[in-house]
Structure formats: structure tokens, C-alpha cells
Amino acid sequence: MVKAIEVKGLQKSYKQLQVLKDVSLEVEKGSIFALLGSNGAGKTTVVKILSTLLNQDGGNATVNGFDVTTKPDHVRQAISLTGQFAAVDEILTGRENLIMIAKLRYLKNPRQVADDLLKRFGLTDAADRRASTYSGGMRRRLDIALSLVGKPQIIFLDEPTTGLDPEARIEVWKIVKELSGGGTTVFLTTQYLEEAEQLADRIAILHEGRIIASGTLSDLKKLYPSAKVEYVEKQPTLEEIFLSIVGNKEAI
Ligand SMILES: Nc1ncnc2c1ncn2[C@@H]1O[C@H](COP(=O)(O)OP(=O)(O)O)[C@@H](O)[C@H]1O
Ligand SMILES: [Mg+2]
């Protein structure tokens, strides 16, 4: 497997609070990887370290083959980040937002880049309206479109659907699937088990500073205690698997 991201023994504390104790993971090029964890588990901390916004205390991480600590510029050229809170400029129109970022990235045809992305994200009709008039789902789509200016190979989406209504969430899922279909590697974080279940090729569960389980959905299903499976008619949901694993860990 060609690895887009490799993380080994990552550690990070904020003063006394040890958020990441020992995080290791690998993401295959062109795949969708979901880092699943409750609020405060440390997902954003992992994303910030991988996107060179924050230094780790221990362990190492490479993104697109470059070490995040020693080659941050190379890493930044390969990635884009869509944070938990939209980075859209409300005063500008959707089109202006895109053109601004394309210019900041010194692209040759900012208008063309903007037009293409507006079309791809179903925002052509709303292109010349201020972003402040957009619905939550439209804003999030514009936000993801902004992060795609310049065609990054790896895209980090930190809780891309938190706060969205179910319809807008499905729109974002569709976009994520399309991105991956086009060869982009997607690293997303989520608190929603269903989201990981719907989208991810591989899932890692971050809990109390460690990856307590990882693999494909079917790998994770195998971890679900078989004795319990006998009593349910349907396949276990990721939620049941999650609770079962987290519950077990807490019992130790
Ligand atoms: N800059 C910071 N200073 C102190 N504590 C922080 C800082 N950033 C995050 N934390 C704490 O670290 C923990 C993990 O945060 P975060 O990575 O944002 O988790 P998640 O994204 O999974 O919700 C939380 O308890 C949070 O309050
Ligand atoms: Mg977060």
C-alpha cells in the first residue's frame, strides 16, 4: 500500500493535560480515513499536528512522504485543511471567496478555477450572492470548495458535518466520496459513527489518548464480542461496536 500519511507514537500535552499518549496510524493514498472519537478525544489535535499547525511532543508523522516537523513546507504544498468552523468570508460572494484564494495561491486562471469549483459544488446559481446569505450546507460546500483550490493531494476535514442538518450532511458525504473517487486522500474526523460507517475505507477510534481499534468496518465488526452478536438479528452497527470496545477498555 502506498501511504499518504504515517504516524508513529504521537504524543501531545497541553500543560498537565496529556491529550495524545501514543497515537499510531497509516492512511493509504486515495482512501478515506476516519478518525472517530468523542468530543475532546484529541481529533483536532491530531489534525493540527498533521497539517503542521502544531508541534508534537513525541513520536513522528509523515504526510505525503515528508516529515511534518522537518519538512513542513513540503507537507503544506500537498495538503488542505477544512477546519471545524467555516473559513468562509461572509461579506464576499461565493465566487469572490474562491477567486481570492486562487489569487493567494498564485493560480493562473482564478476566474476559471472559481467557475469550475462553483459548478462542481452546485453553487453556480448562488455564486454572486454574499456567503452570509448561504444556508449551513451551502457554506460548508463553499468551505470545502475553497480548500480544493490548487488541487491538494491530501485533504483534512475536521468534523465536516458537525452542526449540519441531515440533508446537508448527505451532500457533504457525496462530495467526500467524489473527492476520493478522483484520487484525493481524505482524512476526516467525526463524532458520528454513522458518518464513519458510510464513508470510510478505514476507521480508527481515538480514546483516552490512544487508538484503541482500527481497520475496515468489517475488521471492527470482528472485534465485537461474538456472544453478543448471537442475540441480535441484524449486523452490529458501528455504534454497538464502539460502545462495546470503549466499555471494555473502561472495565480494564
Ligand atoms: N490549546 C489548548 N490548550 C489547552 N487545552 C487544549 C487546547 N486545545 C485543546 N485542548 C484540550 O485538549 C483536549 C482535546 O482537544 P481536541 O483535540 O480539540 O479534541 P476533539 O477535536 O477530539 O474534540 C480537550 O480536552 C481540549 O479541551
Ligand atoms: Mg475537534
Automatic annotation (TrEMBL):
Family to which this protein belongs: Belongs to the ABC transporter superfamily.
SUPFAM superfamilies, sorted: P-loop containing nucleoside triphosphate hydrolases
UniProt superkingdom: Bacteria
Keyword NAD in annotation: no
Keywords: ATP-binding, Cell membrane, Membrane, Nucleotide-binding, Translocase, Transport
Subcellular locations according to the entry: Cell membrane
One MF term in the entry's GO annotations: ATP binding
Gene3D superfamilies: P-loop containing nucleotide triphosphate hydrolases (3.40.50.300)
Protein name: ABC-2 type transport system ATP-binding protein
Species assigned in the record: Paenibacillus endophyticus
Pfam families named in the record: ABC_tran
GO cellular component: plasma membrane
